[in-house]
Design brief:
Among the domains are: 11-45, no CATH class; 69-155, Immunoglobulins (Immunoglobulin-like). The protein has 179 residues and is mainly β. It has one helix at residues 2-7; strands at 12-16, 22-25, 34-40, 43-45, 69-73, 79-81, 86-93, 102-107, 110-113, 120-123, 128-137, 143-146, 150-155. It is elongated, with a radius of gyration of 31 Å.
Amino acid sequence: MLLSLAAEPQEIYRWVDKEGVVHYADKPGAPSAERVEIANYNAYESTPPDLGDTSTSSQPPASPRYDSLTITQPTPDEVFFGADATITAAAELGGTLESDHTLVFYVDGNRVASENGGPVQLPNLERGMHFLRAAVLNQNGAPILSSPQISFHVRMPSINSPQSPQAPRPPKPVPKPAT
């Protein structure tokens, strides 16, 4: 008996709201909702709603197509030495950066804006592992495209290193008394 209830066709309604978003539900959510006939459970047929003349539509223009965004500097897992190391972060964008878009870098989650889509300088980073990601943002600050995240490392001299001038030196051996 339960199987026969599951096999009964269910009512599905489809409507488009005033912002152009298509909705499906088991109850009509708007006066313009149309009942959709389910041919089988994996497919449906429905006629698209008449949206009228789209030339004066309030829909935002299609976003520009960027092919890719890849970080070119630093290379993944690159190691930099010294407290005064300045790291250059650069990215290659597949396409031309639109005038109202911004290329930004995120270093450990902190945003660093790029001038005209060019490289940025990252001075005085703490020692340790850092994460870098690039993104193209629209005029509202929303991301359009993001690069894969990479990591790089900053190493600093340790006072415990034997080569360090600040490393503690072992005491000089005391000469044995003459006998």
